[in-house]
Amino acid sequence: xxxxxxxxxxxxxxxxxxxxxxxxxxxxxxxxxxxxxxxxxxxxxxxxxxxxxxxxxxxxxxxxxxxxxxxxxxxxxxxxxxxxxxxxxxxxxxxxxxxxxxxxxxxxxxxxxxxxxxxxxxxxxxxxxxxxxxxxxxxxxxxxxxxxxxxxxxxxxxxxxxxx
Amino acid sequence: xxxxxxxxxxxxxxxxxxxxxxxxxxxxxxxxxxxxxxxxxxxxxxxxxxxxxxxxxxxxxxxxxxxxxxxxxxxxxxxxxxxxxxxxxxxxxxxxxxxxxxxxxxxxxxxxxxxxxxxxxxxxxxxxxxxxxxxxxxxxxxxxxxxxxxxxxxxxxxxxxxxxxxxxxxxxxxxxxxxxxxxxxxxxxxxxxxxxxxxxxxxxxxxxxxxxxxxxxxxxxxxxxxxxxxxxxxxxxxxxxxxxxxxxxxxxxxxxxxxxxxxxxxxxxxxxxxxxxxxxxxxx
Lengths: 164, 284
Ligand SMILES: Cc1cc2nc3c(=O)[nH]c(=O)nc-3n(C[C@H](O)[C@H](O)[C@H](O)COP(=O)(O)OP(=O)(O)OC[C@H]3O[C@@H](n4cnc5c(N)ncnc54)[C@H](O)[C@@H]3O)c2cc1C
Ligand code: FES
Ligand code: FES
Known about the structure:
The complex is a heterodimer. Chain A is an alpha+beta fold.
């Protein structure tokens, strides 16, 4: 056993403090310690993106980061993006355009897509496919995921214009 | 997939990093983005009893563009490189190559220094650094030293960096002429089956200089001087392309693996180099 470390994280706006072994991967902290089970474990080998969360403004595969590395960071998971009573436009669009079938990849997809739309508010299909390349889906064939993201982008831009 | 237990350190300055490395020798390793190291630790292919996280050590995240050279800190990430407009202006090949590494999530975390120090023949930056004639700055208990990229790689995971040394920065002469980073991979996010870096200068229709390096076709990156020389003095016509490819094939030494047999790799290397030269020349 190695020395446990004191870790403080801000997850979805809430401060979480705990003692963790350095080898504890962030995905386990979220799912098992904090009971935040939106981020999924697909491959556990840094390939599928099901575990994607946003850490200090970056999309990160939380199976490839130790909780101690995230000390002091702000983390957003799908739970912090929207819920049943206040769906995010991306969640709404995935529902509307069949952007999911089994739904296993969806939390990672949507979490990554929020960041993509922050960087490129009106992406082309090619930009979406390139920007979502770290997220795999075994069900949809991606077509409807691309459509959903395009629809959300259009909706979000329209809402932004209306607000201005 | 849980790595073996380790002690975690997050020092705030380089002296502390170096003293932990000194104290634990072989048992200690630095970590930058962790996107090569953590997967290896999870597979228990890397055993790191003392892990030193570099993220709080300052002075390694800058990109400085000088009159003749570009200096990039070891902790600069692949996505930092992609987003840096001034860098893309003076050395567009860095952005072109970075966009072909892994996927967005990995590029936010993966650092230039980690990619270079790792020593995996599949990494894309080492060959690119050889093509650009970069120099690596490493610091250890005995101070700083500079190692040319073309002398840095000795075998898979064996480099000229000593265990107690940390890579702090990369210095690149401002590249001249046309560029191309061409990579063949099985799927997006994959390491190269073959990749080629080319930087080429055109003076009145004649090639006056050409630097060529190949990735994942030997246990180290391969700087092929003979391939570059085959282009110099020519108008980069078909005969010159053939000669460059033949010279390059003499310098690489691919092995069979899940990316294909040797004959296939040689074939792909030739196609990729041809494309890279043509694209670089069209931009020169
Ligand atoms: C799914 C996936 C796909 C990938 N695809 C590609 C690809 O196509 N091409 C590619 O090139 N890479 C690829 N990578 C690797 C990725 O680019 C890594 O991030 C990079 O190789 C290492 O950078 P890092 O900062 O993460 O280093 P780390 O993982 O932190 O470190 C890697 C090694 O370098 C050492 N090290 C790190 N920094 C320093 C330093 N400053 N001084 C001395 N030693 C140091 C560490 O001790 C360790 O041994 C992929 C990774 C994943 C997970
Ligand atoms: S579970 Fe993290 S990338 Fe697949
Ligand atoms: S909806 Fe099933 S994996 Fe994507």
